[in-house]
TrEMBL record:
Protein source organism: Danionella cerebrum
GO molecular function: ubiquitin-protein transferase activity
InterPro entries in the cross-refs: BACURD1-3, BTB/POZ_dom, SKP1/BTB/POZ_sf, T1-type_BTB
Designated name of the protein: BTB domain-containing protein
Entry GO terms, CC: Cul3-RING ubiquitin ligase complex
Higher taxonomy: Eukaryota, Metazoa, Chordata, Craniata, Vertebrata
C-alpha cells in the first residue's frame, strides 16, 4: 500500500484498479507486502486504526510479518487490512509499540484479555509487561505467561462457584427443589439446635462437613445445585434430590449415652457423602428416566453403621429414600481409655 493510497480514504492502488473490473465491488482480496507503504489502515474486528508501518515493525511480531509480506492478510475494497480479532484492546497494543510501555487495566479479566492479545500478536515485550504485573500482584516472581493465565482462570472458576442459596423457610425450599432441573444437594447445618453438650471432636467434624460442602459446590458447579439450610431441626444433615424428590439422606449427628450425661456427636462420613453426590448425577438433564440406583442399604462406608430405607406408602423401590445414619442408635462417649462406657440401643 502506498502512502498516497492510504492517505485518503477513497484512494486505491493502481494494481487494485486494474483488477477491479474483474472483481465484484466490496469483495476482499489477498494482501501483499506493505513495507513500501508509509501508513497502514487496520480494521480489527470492526474497529478502525490508522498507523505507520514503522510502528507495526518495531518488534519481531505478527504485525511486522504482516508488513513485510511474510504473513498473508486480507485487504478490503477500500484498502483496509482486515484482522479477525477483537479490537477492544488494540489501541493499547499500538500504544505499547509506540512508547515501549503502557498502563495496564486494573481489572483481572481485562488484564487476561490483554495478555491473550499480546500472545496472539507475538509481542513478547507486552507479554512480559503483563506477566510482571501479575507477578507483582501475586508475589510470585516465578510465574510464566501460561501459568498466569491458568491462575486467572482458576480464580474466575472459584468466584463462579461461590453462589450458594440460603434457605429461609420450608416453603422456599420446596419451591426451589421442585422447580430446579438440576440435581440438588442440601446441607442442613444448625449448630445451635442442641440441648446437650458436644463431644470433643464434634466441632472439627462439623467444620469438615462445611468444607466438604464448599469443595463439592466448586467441583460440580453448573451441574448440581447446592443449597444451605441454617434454620432446620438437624445439626448436620445432608439431603440429595433428583427430579424434585428426595433420593437420599445422610445424617451426621448422634447421641452419646454415658453414665453422667448425654452428649451430641457429629461425624464426618466423607466417603458416603461423596458417593451420594455422584449417585444423583444420573438425574442430570433427566437422564434418570428408566434407570434405578443400586440398593446401597447393606453397604457401609467408613464410619457408617446403619442405613434405613423409608418407602412407606410408595409403590416401587425406585421411589424410596435412602436414609443413612452414622451409628445412630449405638454410640459411646469419648472419654479416655479405662473409663466406664455404657451402651444403649
Amino acid at each position: 500500500m502506498s502512502a498516497e493510497a492510504s492517505g485518503s480514504p477513497g484512494g486505491s492502488l493502481s494494481s487494485s484498479t486494474q483488477s477491479s473490473s474483474s472483481r465484484p465491488p466490496g469483495e476482499e482480496k489477498p494482501g501483499r507486502n506493505l513495507a513500501s507503504s508509509k501508513y497502514v489502515k487496520l480494521n480489527v474486528g470492526g474497529t478502525l486504526h490508522y498507523t505507520t508501518v514503522q510502528t507495526l515493525s518495531k518488534e519481531d511480531s505478527l504485525l511486522r510479518s504482516i508488513c513485510d509480506g511474510s504473513t498473508e492478510v486480507t485487504i478490503d475494497s477500500e484498502g483496509w487490512v482486515v484482522l479477525d480479532r477483537c479490537g477492544r484492546h488494540f489501541s493499547l497494543v499500538l500504544n505499547f509499540l509506540r512508547d515501549g510501555t503502557v498502563p495496564l487495566p486494573e481489572s483481572t479479566r481485562e488484564l487476561e484479555e490483554v495478555l491473550k492479545e499480546a500472545q496472539y500478536y507475538r509481542l513478547q515485550g507486552l507479554v512480559q509487561h503483563c506477566v510482571a504485573t501479575i507477578q507483582i500482584e501475586e508475589k510470585r516472581p516465578w510465574l510464566t505467561d501460561v501459568a498466569c493465565l491458568m491462575l486467572i482462570q482458576k480464580r474466575r472458576d472459584v468466584c463462579r462457584g461461590c453462589h450458594i442459596p440460603m434457605i429461609t423457610s420450608a416453603k422456599e425450599e420446596q419451591k426451589m427443589i421442585a422447580t430446579c432441573r438440576k440435581p440438588v444437594v442440601k446441607l442442613q447445618n444448625n449448630r445451635g439446635n442442641n440441648k446437650y453438650s458436644y463431644t470433643s471432636n464434634s466441632d472439627d467434624n462439623l467444620l469438615k462437613n462445611i468444607e466438604l460442602f464448599d469443595k463439592l459446590g466448586l467441583r460440580f458447579n453448573g451441574r448440581v445445585l447446592f443449597i444451605k439450610d441454617v434454620l432446620g431441626d438437624e445439626i448436620c444433615c445432608w439431603s440429595f434430590y433428583g427430579e424434585g424428590r428426595k433420593i437420599a439422606e445422610v445424617c451426621c449427628t448422634s447421641i452419646v449415652y454415658a453414665t453422667e450425661k448425654k452428649q451430641t456427636k457429629v461425624e464426618f462420613p466423607e466417603a458416603r457423602i461423596f458417593e451420594e453426590t455422584l449417585n444423583i448425577l444420573i438425574y442430570e438433564n433427566g437422564r434418570a428416566s428408566g434407570m434405578a440406583l443400586p440398593d446401597s442399604g447393606g453397604v457401609s462406608a467408613s464410619g457408617v453403621g446403619q442405613s434405613e430405607e423409608d418407602g412407606a406408602g410408595v409403590v416401587g423401590a425406585d421411589r424410596r429414600v435412602r436414609r443413612i445414619h452414622v451409628r445412630r442408635h449405638i454410640m459411646h462417649d469419648e472419654r479416655g481409655h479405662g473409663q466406664q462406657t455404657v451402651y444403649k440401643d
